[in-house]
Fold each of these.
Amino acid sequence: MNQTVQKQTSDRQGTAAPRRDALVAAARRAFVLHGVERTSLDDVIAEAGGSRRNIYNLFGGKDGLVQAVVETILNDTAKIAEAPPNPDLPPRDWLIAVGVAFTRRMLDPDIVAVLRHFIASGGATPEAAERLWQIGPAQFQRSLGKWLEVQHKEGRLHVPDIEAAATLLPTMFRANFQVEMLMGRKAVITEEDIRSNVVRAVDFFLLATSVR
């Protein structure tokens, strides 16, 4: 390959990356606002620029664009590195802090949009669904279980079934919020609502597990 051809190839690649990023970002916003099914390629092009040819060249079509958006959201979720609260905090304070952080993350509009897509696809993307589960609820349950085990061993809490507690607590934190967002009953859950529900869940949990 001569230098002229190499330069042309490099220029095309350099142009394609920003265009690809712009299309993915525009599609991501549109999917959150309108849903995957109701978003057309023309909607994405109207915001990001480019053409249908760009989308087909870069993604192979709408399905490929959807996959690129889902992958971007999964990567962003995996990168979330909220500093865990000080493990020396009193159990109630620690549980409230992690409960609010976890619930806020699971109610993020991007996550809800991906969940809607997984439901609408009828299980067509099990690998992506499994990845979201592992970097979201499963990771949180593992961390919570380790903390509960320490609290139990050191006599601060009485939690004979660590696995059950680590599974049930996140469900109590989320309450019906995520289902309400998925159904479209509520578009946004306020920070006040999240914290209020987490506090109730923690206090209820501690009634059963506090050492007397």
Amino acid sequence: MRPISARLPRFAVIGAVGVAVVAGAFYLFDRTGAEAPPPAPARQAAASQPRADLSDVDSLPDEASSDRAFHLVAQALRLADRGKFTEATAKLDEADKLVPGLSETGEARRKIAALATPDGQFALQIARARTAVGNADYAEADKALAEATKLKPEAPEIAELRQAVQATQQKEAKRSSQVAEALTTMRQAIARNDIASADRAFNEASRIDVLDPALDQARVELAHAHDEASNKK
């Protein structure tokens, strides 16, 4: 059997993967102070759960069991992130059977119980909306905000995020308009056979928003103009 010093770090690394799945939403929920302590029977059950004796290497669970337990914890957190709390709890029960008293299982159980509350669900939807706004996925942001509105219609976070979506969309619309103007200038320069001016206009459009999809077609047109200019020499 491998020494304990070689086995315990593996536990921590695998467990961290699952805990990170719902960390953002739980952080928001925890900050509000809405989380309630687990009921007394649950605390008593956790206290009575047998734990592995870490001072005795031979009492530690085998590596395959511990790996499977951490995998189940990660699955549980992913299920909870999708609102499937019954299935998530079942995964944690399986993990407890494999490695009784695992601290990561208890922590995941606490977080999932918090997320299953209305306040927890609200925090989860707000976290999803913020992520979607950051990714410019406005359809997903609207979907998450609609779910959050069902839970807390008057919550200030909803209005703030809707304003953020609107402001970001306005900025993107302005950039798109500026890119379109620069590309119009490029095409006018190509029509005059002024390739140098066309290059400058294209570079200006790229500077405004290098990810604008309109640049793809413009790049093809500019390359074709360069080829034609070279053939005329």
Amino acid sequence: MKLESAGMEVGRARDAAATAARTPRYEEIYRELVNDIRDGRYPVGGKLPPELELCTTFAASRHTVREAVRRLTEQGLIARRAGAGTMVLRRTRSGGFTQRISALPDLLAYVKSAKLEVLEARDIKASAQEAGLLRCRRGQAWHRLVALKHLRGARKPVAYVLAYVHRDHPALRGVLDRRGVELHDFIEARIGERIVTVEQELSAKPMGKEANALGLAPGYAGFVIARRYLAASGTTVLVTSTIFPYDRMRYSMSLKLA
């Protein structure tokens, strides 16, 4: 019995070592910081240590620490404040997703962190409702993508997405149709132009078929973000309409006087 027990302990140790070997370093740091915040080492309203101090504490690179901190931000535990450091907002992870935008680079950084699970991709002629979103005439040809949005670290899809590419941008269409596409792939590199303007509209509505795709009951309250991505030439590169369940999304924006 003792030999059997010892063998089981060795097996558990090997399993633990194998699991640890598969866990990225940034994930380990993220989990430790989550525990520290939960246990009150970094209290709500207080500050997280500076990046260089965290690098020293965890003997990790700045890139690794930044990834861990980014995950804390996505979970709504912390927020970076210009000139004030990184503030602790809550002790436990929220069930939803917090998006904080203060400038266009923040928005594009968020776009880079998201991936799409493609449900449908096909050519369409804009309906009357879509023409209003796309600011085009009814019946104009577009390529439409229907997808679920996933963020790193989130167990469930956070949103239902409609994305439209004008037929004048066939290079984007090929990227849209790939499963697991990273959103930023079709922003700038594929068209050879910089995105200089993003027009955004916020609204609310009860969800219909979107709720079914997200595993929710029809009529569930939704928060809609419509965006139009414009290149330096003034052309509309991409139009998206993203609907979040009301309890999986919080939106925060800071504005400064020039």
Amino acid sequence: MTAIRGDLGEAPISVNEDAIIADIIAANLKMMEVEPNGFKWRAQHPKGHGAIPARFVVGPDVPAEYRIGLFAQPAEFDAVIRFSNGTERKDDPSGGDAHGMAIRLFGVPGQRVEGPADAAGTLDFILVDNETFFEGDLNEYSAFNDLVSEVLNFKRNGDEALAAIVNGIYLKFLKKYFSHDIYAVAQKFGDQQPVSPLRAIYWSTTPFLHGDIAVKHRVVPEPAPAPGELRDGVTGKDGLTDRLLAGLSGQGATFGFYIQPQEDVVAHPIEDPNVNWTENGAPWIRVGRIDIPPLDVADAAARTELIAAGDRMAFNIWNTLPDHRPLGAVNRVRNKVYKALARARHAEGV
């Protein structure tokens, strides 16, 4: 086990952490939907919009104090990006959702946090289009996952009335026993309505090492999106997929990759990803670029395979260099939950 970084505000592992993680895994397994043909949807971010080829570029202009690990020297890496919906298996034009950007790099040398690199030298980032996470600690994480899994089960069985009753009981419990209204925060988290996956801003929400400091990550389209592009939304069942592929047809796209150094362990806590570091004064530093080349999908079969290729992929934030180790309890949960769900799906993806 990698040493806890108490100097950065990382808390000791609690005695009941494994039990809480087991409960979260059980709740997520309940959320996993299975089709009649045996296909198992991801419990989180089930609908992907394709496995999009890209290049991850570390330029010569990285400030000297941040030339560490992946960013130690100028380099370029082949990459694949899976854009996704957070909860909906379809693009819902009547409301928002959270949207993901999972990035896999290839050919990255060096040991990984949990062992040797795989044969392809992969390294992963996972981001979402909201700056903060909606749960502040493991207890909130577990309680909210219990709520969602139970309500979804009743809805799938066609019992909307009972789902509403259970939802109401849980909400009263959450509001009474936790420091903030988890459900209200989660609703905001899931109310993003970008005009295209190519025009959204994505954040890591949780912190990571960057050598001896803690940072968060952010990916921003270049040029930066206008406010309307973040709220206009789309129409049609596959609206976001349509916009993504149309946006790459005959032209590419570029994103800047940023880190946000922790400057104060209280104002920029490790163990509460619900706290907005930007509002508390932490700056963003550009350290890389993501180039997506033009992509023209020939026909419906090619489009289907592009999406299926993304669905077959696995991403895990712990698939990274020791210099960029995930920090905090929520990130430890994600590691074990992702692995458990991957095993349950009998495939590579989570």
